[in-house]
Specification:
Blueprint: E1 2-3, E2 6-7, H1 30-46, H2 49-61, E3 69-72, H3 77-88, E4 94-100, H4 106-119, E5 122-127, H5 130-142, H6 150-166, E6 171-173, H7 178-181, H8 196-206, H9 219-229, E7 233-235, H10 245-256, H11 269-283, H12 288-297, H13 303-310, H14 317-330, H15 335-342, H16 356-368
Parallel strand pairs: 3-4, 3-6, 4-5, 6-7
Antiparallel strand pairs: 1-2
Helix pairs in contact: 3-4, 3-10, 5-8, 11-14
């Protein structure tokens, strides 16, 4: 489907704002082709109760103290439903970690409290140094980087992995899943948050302080050292259920008084600004296209519904002004300074040092070995 040299997939809503997208003779994109080839049958095969029971048995065997495993919680639908499943369906006793990066919304705070209280789970909150978080986030602003969420994402996953290693908890269970995330955002929209080399280069160029307390864990530490030498295993339970986003939200609302938010990841005030305003208005990248396309392929949304939703901005003009003001005040810069940055020359991750080519090599190896099913480019 074409519109003024703008090509949209005929099956999902991914388009040429991903400059590397490819289409076949039927007008279907390579994300859809990859889903049919590498993910669709895997989704079906994973819904095997005997396979799940075997994994749960292994998790219980490696119990550390009172806890079978560790899970992170943000207050979003995936992590909240994960806690529900882990406790009520798998009958595990997880230690729950929340990483406070300074950007929690009232919805996320409510959701975490309700889930923890009603499931009687133990919660550890790791508070990231705000001075360092603020300085690193400002560095990414000054770098004119598309993915402003790298500092926050890195802090979250590094804190969880480092905690698991420190306290010898062998299993990390995550809310990652194929049903709502079978399409990975192109790297030009969302470069790897795990590339610590990239983060340090941007902080060195634009930052005002050395990061002493900021949680760090480079991709090779958690992919190789932690997994193969420390015995840390990562498991995604939601893949073993017929995970439907809307149904899951209704369950969370009815059982826990869980509060909805506008879009995926908007439980964070910063992510709401970054995805709903910065990324779209400054770069023209709309992450909803990947989110909705995943739901289309897993039969949770029609293409027509997605197109209708995409005709409207992810946040209203009023919300955009409020978030713009909130972010500038939180980062202790004026709105005029933030406007100046918004109007600066756009850059990409390729303008800074990174491990991109090394990471891509290992991604290709993992795809060849069938350990990675999603298309990542």
């Amino acid at each position: 489907m074409k519109n003024n040299n703008h090509t949209i997939c005929r099956r999902c809503v991914m388009d040429t704002t991903d400059s590397n997208i490819k289409f076949d003779e039927n007008g279907e994109c390579d994300f859809c082709q990859n889903f049919d080839k590498n993910i669709k049958n895997k989704l079906i095969s994973l819904r095997d109760s005997t396979q799940l029971a075997s994994i749960v048995k292994k998790i219980k065997k490696q119990k550390t103290g009172n806890y079978d495993c560790l899970i992170g919680i943000s207050g979003g639908v995936d992590s909240s439903f994960l806690a529900h499943i882990v406790k009520n369906e798998l009958f595990l006793n997880p230690l729950v970690i929340h990483v406070d990066t300074g950007w929690n919304s009232k919805e996320s705070v409510n959701n975490i409290e309700r889930i923890i209280d009603k499931l009687s789970l133990d919660l550890v909150t790791i508070v990231v140094s705000w001075k360092e978080m603020r300085d690193l986030q400002l560095s990414f602003f000054k770098a004119q980087h598309p993915n402003l969420d790298i500092p926050q994402d890195h802090a979250i996953f590094a804190s969880i992995y480092n905690y698991a290693v420190k306290y010898n908890i062998k299993y990390i269970l995550t809310g990652g899943n194929f049903a709502t995330e079978c399409i990975r955002e192109p790297l030009q929209w969302a470069y790897h948050a795990s590339d610590l080399f990239h983060i340090k280069d941007i902080q060195k160029k634009f930052g005002n302080m050395r990061l002493k307390d900021f949680p760090m864990c480079n991709i090779f530490t958690y992919k190789i050292l932690y997994r193969y030498f420390k015995g840390i295993k990562v498991f995604q339970p939601l893949n073993y259920f017929d995970y439907k986003k809307e149904d899951s939200m209704r369950i969370l609302e009815n059982k826990y008084g869980w509060l909805r938010y506008e879009q995926k990841h908007y439980e964070s005030r910063f992510t709401k600004f970054y995805e709903g305003y910065w990324l779209l208005k400054k770069f023209g990248y709309d992450k909803r296209k990947a989110h909705y396309s995943s739901l289309i392929l897993s039969n949770q949304m029609t293409r027509e519904e997605a197109i209708t939703k995409l005709e409207k901005d992810p946040i209203t003009e009023k919300d955009a002004k409020n978030e713009f003001s909130y972010v500038s005040k939180k980062l202790e810069i004026s709105e005029s300074e933030l406007n100046f940055i918004m109007n600066g020359e756009n850059k990409s991750f390729k303008d800074y040092k990174s491990l991109h080519f090394i990471i891509q090599f290992f991604v290709k190896v993992l795809r060849f070995l069938k350990f990675e099913s999603r298309l990542i480019r």
